[in-house]
Design brief:
49% of the residues lie in helices and 11% in strands. A seven-stranded parallel beta sheet has the order 3-4-2-5-6-1-7, sandwiched between helices. Strands 8-13-12-9-11-10 form a six-stranded parallel beta sheet, with helices on both faces. It has five domains: 5-203, Rossmann fold (3-Layer(aba) Sandwich); 211-348, Rossmann fold (3-Layer(aba) Sandwich); 409-517, Winged helix-like DNA-binding domain superfamily/Winged helix DNA-binding domain (Arc Repressor Mutant, subunit A, Orthogonal Bundle); 533-614, Orthogonal Bundle (DNA polymerase, domain 1); 624-726, ATP-dependent DNA helicase RecQ (Arc Repressor Mutant, subunit A), CATH 1.10.10.
């Protein structure tokens, strides 16, 4: 179907109200109307839908749009019907329709009323549907979210792999495949699977200049998120979490801290899911806390921020999720809270999957780690991942690394050493092993190939493992190294890298941020650093003074992590003090008055801008473990029986008991302690804790021989001591 430019522009204006096409839209539409296949890569918010909606509306027959999510289909159908005020113009065909509704859809298609039919691959493959589609005119096939086809994509769906076979079964027509997230590898996989290798590729820039990229170390992430959102009052935003449980938890924490938030995940009943989505779209809700199920195809242009509570599984997923911000052209802030422990969780998700799938998953995770930990321009790194080169100067401080750059050092010698090392290793190793080889660290794989390494092993042992990971990443981005994807990420030196070895040139590098050193646990025994060292010292001295007055060890009043948290949060009311790590209401009332008076005076004297807005009001615990443990101890059950009742190991049970007493709740352990050891032994350990500055398990373990008291015995006595003396 040939069409003039004037006619096409008139249709654009008459139907959608736009005066001009964006980017490559016009060329894509003309290519499709001419009967040619098209592969379209456009960033989120770039106008992909227009590329198949407009040609479908002006073509003879009905276009079949394959889409992965019902929410996406519904949203687009509603938009189209809004333009035409005619419900027959676009339909959804899926399992949620009644037989009557399905028959009506098919009747509208057969009569020529319907121009776009949105369908999931599962519905497309049904025999009764394929037989019907053979009987009607199909204008073309649009494969939306086409990255679902590729096993290398972030959202692979096996049913998408059969689309070409289904299309051939229905009947030939042009194919347009569209995605916002496709690396060169995924691109090729999509086109190969759809038999479109000779089709025209339309590749728009992945750069979203209005988005600010930022990675922060995850500390007390709930407080961090609350602070972040409170600084953006009245703005729309999304908080992404990996699990449904975490979505529910964070949504509730936000709600009780005065933030208008709702949860969204596939486990919610359909009506509630739709209601929450609508509330967000209608500005009745400021923040949606969601799994990645939310957002695909959702048209809300004024989303001002996207928060990732957990690191995403892949950079494709990250790009797509963050791309939901700033679609109106206004600034969008993107913040991800990162802790390497989250990576271990992602790797655990891969367990039990086929080996090849595990390898692909690990490779995707590694790219996410590299992006998170890099010190180079995040925009440059991200765009490079999608096969687009970008000058970091053009970032214009729109990422944290460019806004607050680290000092660079000359890295020519390090790069050359690494490249020689990779060459010497003959492409047998992935980045992780290669970094270890440079350090002189071995494992079974390295040992097997030690004879091939020659002088390479240990040549960079004067630097850290993290440093060599950083060097590998920077050499990779500069295309001196490549990862053999088909061989699951084995490193090889490129032709450019070989030239560098022969004729080295200046190569400025930055040492990457060590997130492991700043990530802290919320455990009461975890020691961190006080944001205000002076206040911390004042509070420590105050604790010592009061402890002498009441005749107790200082740590009985407040343990050191509690003082650290006070020096971070500046609590000046009993309510705020009760929220401090390891304090609780009981301790706050018992020992807190002088502390909050001191902190208040300090805040006023030094004109401190307190982070009181981020004091997290705790969600009432829904964990049955705490209640179960307390009730079981009251019933005088033994440790082993209590642990078995909840499927816990005795060690993990003791950990939960420690957390309970450190938050101010008393536990009745007399029946266990009396049966476990003699009164003199109990008193000996209790007396030891009374005399120590910080009554820690580690100190007690050094004091008492293992043949005298086991670890569990010392831990139980410590729990008993805290319960009776401190609570």
């Amino acid at each position: 179907m040939s069409i003039s430019t004037e006619t096409l522009h008139k249709n654009l204006k008459d139907i959608f109200g736009f005066n001009a096409f964006r980017s490559d839209q016009e060329e894509i539409i003309i290519n499709l109307l001419d009967g040619n296949d098209s592969m379209v890569i456009m960033p989120t918010g770039g106008g992909k839908s227009m590329c198949y909606q407009l040609p479908a509306l002006i073509s003879e027959g009905c276009a079949i749009v394959v889409s992965p999510l019902i929410a996406l289909m519904k949203n687009q159908v509603d938009v189209l019907r809004g333009h035409y005020h005619n419900e027959s113009i676009a339909h959804v065909l899926n399992s949620s329709l009644s037989k009557t509704q399905t028959n009506q859809v098919k009747e509208d298609i057969a009569s020529g009323k319907t121009k776009l039919l949105y369908v999931a691959p599962e519905s497309l493959v049904k025999k009764e549907n394929t037989e019907f589609f053979r009987s009607v005119k199909i204008s073309f096939y649009a494969i939306d979210e086409a990255h679902c086809i590729s096993e290398w994509g972030h959202d692979f769906r096996p049913e998408y792999r059969n689309l070409k076979r289904i299309i051939d079964d229905i009947g030939q027509a042009p194919i347009i495949a569209l995605t916002a997230t496709a690396t060169p590898k995924v691109r090729h996989d999509i086109m190969k699977n759809l038999h479109m290798l000779d089709s025209k590729l339309f590749l728009d820039s992945f750069n979203r200049s209005n988005l600010f990229y930022e990675i922060q170390p995850k500390k007390d992430v709930a407080k961090q998120i609350i602070q972040y959102i409170n600084n953006r009052k009245g703005e729309s935003g999304i908080v992404y979490c990996l699990s449904r449980k975490k979505v529910e938890e964070i949504a509730e924490v936000l709600q009780i801290n005065g933030i208008n938030a709702l949860p969204y995940h596939a486990g919610l009943e359909a009506k509630k899911r739709v209601a929450h989505q609508e509330a967000f779209l209608m500005d009745d809700c400021d923040v949606i806390v969601a799994t990645i199920a939310f957002g695909m195809g959702i048209d809300k242009p004024d989303i001002r921020f996207v928060v990732h509570h957990d690191i995403p599984k892949s950079l494709e997923g990250y790009y797509q999720e963050t791309g939901r911000a700033g679609r109106d052209g206004g600034k969008g802030d993107l913040i991800t809270f990162y802790d390497y422990k989250d990576i271990e969780k992602l790797e655990n998700f891969l367990q039990g999957k086929p080996v090849a799938e595990q390898e692909v998953g690990r490779l995707l995770i590694m790219e996410t780690i590299a992006f998170s930990e890099t010190s180079m321009c995040r925009r440059k790194y991200l765009l490079h991942y999608f096969g687009e080169e970008f000058d970091a100067v053009k970032c214009e401080d729109m990422c944290d690394n460019c806004k607050n750059p680290k000092e660079k050092i000359e890295g020519q010698d390090f790069i050359k050493l690494l490249l020689k090392g990779v060459e010497g290793a003959r492409g047998r190793f992935k980045p992780k092993e290669m970094a270890r080889i440079m350090m002189g660290e071995s494992n079974s794989l390295i040992k097997q190939n030690m004879s091939q390494l020659g002088d390479v092993f240990g040549t960079g042992n004067d630097k850290s493992l993290g440093f060599w990971h950083s060097i590998i990443r920077q050499a990779y981005v500069k295309q001196l190294l490549t990862k053999e994807i088909e061989s699951y990420g084995l490193l090889k030196v490129t032709d450019s890298g070989k030239e560098f070895i022969k004729e080295p040139y200046s190569f400025m590098i930055t040492e990457d941020h060590d997130y492991d050193s700043v990530a802290t646990s919320s455990s009461g025994n975890q020691k961190g650093q006080a944001a205000d060292p002076l206040l911390f010292k004042i509070l420590k001295d105050l604790r010592k003074k009061i402890a002498k007055k009441v005749g107790l060890p200082p740590a009985i009043l407040f343990m050191e992590p509690s003082l650290i948290d006070m020096a971070n949060q500046y609590p000046i009311t009993m309510e705020e003090l009760a929220q401090v790590q390891g304090v609780g209401t009981g301790k706050a009332k018992k020992y807190g008055l002088e502390f909050i008076s001191t902190i208040k005076e300090y805040v006023e004297e030094h004109e401190i801008d307190r982070p009181q807005d981020i004091v997290v009001r705790a969600v009432a615990s829904k964990s049955s473990n705490k209640i179960y443990i307390i009730q079981s101890l009251d019933k005088k059950l033994c440790i082993d029986d209590i642990a078995k009742g909840k499927g816990l190991s005795p060690k993990n049970l003791l950990t939960e008991m420690e957390e309970i007493v450190e938050k101010g709740t008393r536990l009745n352990l007399d029946h266990i302690i009396i049966d476990m050891m003699e009164e003199e032994e109990r008193e000996e350990i209790h007396d030891f804790f009374k005399e120590t500055e910080e009554f820690s398990f580690d100190e007690a373990r050094v004091e008492f021989d293992e043949d005298e008291f086991s670890d569990n015995e010392i831990r139980l006595l410590r729990i008993d001591f805290i319960s009776k003396v401190a609570n």
